[in-house]
Amino acid sequence: MSAGQHATDSHGGILRTFFSIVVMVAFVLGLSWALRTFVFTAYEIPSGSMEETIMTGDMVFAEKVSYYFRDPEPGDIVTFTDPEIPGRTLIKRCIATAGQTINITGDGILYIDGVAQSETYTHGKPTLPLSNSSITFPYTVPQGHIWVMGDNRTNSQDSRYFGAVPTSSVTGRGVLVYWPVSEFGVLE
Fold first, then answer.
1. Range of the structural domain that residue 145 is part of
2. Which of 64, 92, 156, 159 is catalytic?
3. What CA–CA distance (Å, rounded) separates 184 from 81?
4. Are residues 99 and 165 in the same domain?
5. CA end-to-end distance (rounded Å), the chain
6. CB neighbours of 110 closer than 8 A, spacing ≥ 6?
7. What is the predicted pLDDT for the residue at 3?
8. What is the C-alpha to C-alpha distance for residues 89 and 73, in angstroms, rounded to an integer?
9. Is residue 34 domain-shared with residue 118, that is, in the same domain?
């Protein structure tokens, strides 16, 4: 083999390796984008509105696949586009769906369709109307909407403040706290 042949083979091998690396990086970036867009998204929780279920600073995965096949249901922890600040995502619990009537009275108990709710995830915190809101009760959730509330009822601006949110604004279902490791677990 001549010296010229060896240089050409070596140069072609370097180009093939470079091309393989570029293709691999493009594939990983494309797969990452597809997973984030269509399957799941990670969020860092900036406030205490879902405490004790989700703590400030926790990192949470929200999956998107469920809502391709069904609408949010009461009890689901949902991520959705903030109705007041476009581009910002909020996380709250779905409390009621279209056609259900919410009533919040001075006794601190939430009523849905006239039935007092037992909500262990609120840890006994009262559910009261917000004084800075124009929402009045009883309130019937309109078609195509859900009623959402934070589990920390004494520290959450939620549907009591901004009303029901369109199901079309729901971006995922909170399923897992993955950080810190001490809080790792499935959301319920």
1. 41-186
2. 92
3. 25
4. yes
5. 69
6. 95, 102, 103, 104, 116, 117, 119, 127, 149
7. 47
8. 19
9. no
The pLDDT averaged over each successive group of 10 residues in the chain (188 residues) is: 51 79 78 65 87 90 90 95 91 97 92 94 90 90 97 93 95 88 82
Number of H helices, E strands in the chain: 3, 12
Same domain, 1 and 58: no
What pLDDT is recorded for position 38? 63
Residues 167, 153 share a domain? yes
Provide the CATH number for the domain around residue 137. Answer: 2.10.109.10
Token reading at 37 = 């867009």
64 assigned to active site: no
Q: Which one of 2, 10, 20, 49 is the catalytic residue?
A: 49
Active site residue 92: yes
Residues 6+ apart with CB under 8 A from 150: 49, 50, 92, 93, 156, 157, 158
Instruction: Give the pLDDT of residue 1.
Output: 46
Residues 33 and 118 in one domain: no
Q: Which residues pair with 90 in a beta bridge?
A: 80
| Sheet order of strands, 101-104 included | 115-116, 110-112, 101-104, 139-140
